[in-house]
Amino acid sequence: MEKTMETAQGPLAGLRVLELGQLIAGPFCAQLFGDMGADVIKVEAPGQGDPMRTWGRTGYPLLWSVCARNKRCITANLREKEGQDIVRQLVRQADFVVENFRPGTMEKWGLGYEDLKKENPAIIMIRISGYGQTGPYSKRPGYASVGEAMGGVRYLMGEPDRKPSRAGISLGDTLAGTFATMGALAALHHREKTGEGQVVDAAIYESILAITESLVPEYTVENYTRERSGSYLPAIAPSNIYDCSDGMVILAANQNTVFTRLCEAMGRPGLKDDPRYATHVARGENQAELDNLINDWTRTRTIDEVEAVMIEHAVPVGKVYRARDMLDDPHYVAREALVDLPSERWGTIKMQNAFPKLSATPGSVRWSGPERLGEHTEQVLTDLLDLTPEQIGKLRSSGIV
């Protein structure tokens, strides 16, 4: 079931990532590397490991199998010199180090960038934190929820008559991990030209800020503050969730030509000439009225009926998917968006496949996360650091691994 770096394929095969993070942001970054073929060695604290091993509904810590997939997991006590020495030795054979501790923690352990580049001048250190490595807030603890609020997204999510909502996933963590990966690959390109490593500094709040479109210019130029609007965007119409007799469907027809096709699909071609709906601006000004009109039409039909007629008229349409809707969807199946993996704990586990898809060197999910804490400790310490069984036994007895 398991494969190692030597058998891994993908565009990043041959690269090695040392993951020192925990929970989501750092591990997600390393997961992306692993999906693309890199050899990822995850370092956990002996005796406890990454808290993600136990997170989830009682008895079902399933996110661990996603975050830890394609990784080899070892233990090392980074608070002790012997554990720090293990990391330093591994850094000599690594291309990247990923960490998402509070800024200053790695320096306290003697594992900051200035320390690590003495071991390997070409090392690329990926640092993910709530507020970044610099600035007056840098030393604060920062979870995704706080970064989502500071970055501006949390205020915009939800209905206008109640407190802001959250996305239902750790959006800030995964975005920070994604931007960190992009930065690391840019740093890799620089290293290929110069031989120099560097630090990639990814802040959760800035990762959120990066996707806020024209939020800030709208305020600074026109003194406009975006507010929560629920399931639609103000003045973008029609583009909303509409009721059907057996559920919900999304329609997006705010462009003039598409709106014309929507009117034809509904059997109301004259709506396109109605002054209230004839232009993008007019539809925005009469958004609620237009949404009600469309909803009156959709709620008398099934999802399949609405989807069929909209596809026939080339109007963007989609079901509002839950997990069960994804499993047998023909498009999911055709693109292999989900993959089944053998799992020591679960028998078989289905999860999202590696993405994005590359035509010549595709990534892959080669195994689900190792269940046993320190499962690859002996393998890594023997193969990479040439430690003897006696040396490893001594480290175990002293609590270092």
UniProtKB/TrEMBL annotation:
- Tell me which domain of life the UniProt entry assigns to the organism this sequence originates from: Bacteria
Q: Which residues cross the membrane?
A: none
Q: Which UniProt keywords apply?
A: Transferase
Gene Ontology MF terms:
CoA-transferase activity
InterPro entries given in the database record: CoA-transferase_III_domain, CoA-Trfase_fam_III, CoA-Trfase_III_dom3_sf, CoA-Trfase_III_dom_1_sf
Q: Which SUPFAM superfamilies match?
A: CoA-transferase family III (CaiB/BaiF) (SSF89796)
What's one Pfam family the UniProt record gives for this protein? CoA_transf_3
Task: Specify whether Transferase is a keyword of the entry.
Answer: yes
Q: Does the keyword Translocase apply?
A: no
In Swiss-Prot or TrEMBL terms, this protein is called CAIB/BAIF family protein
Which species is the source of this protein?
Answer: Hyphomonas jannaschiana VP2
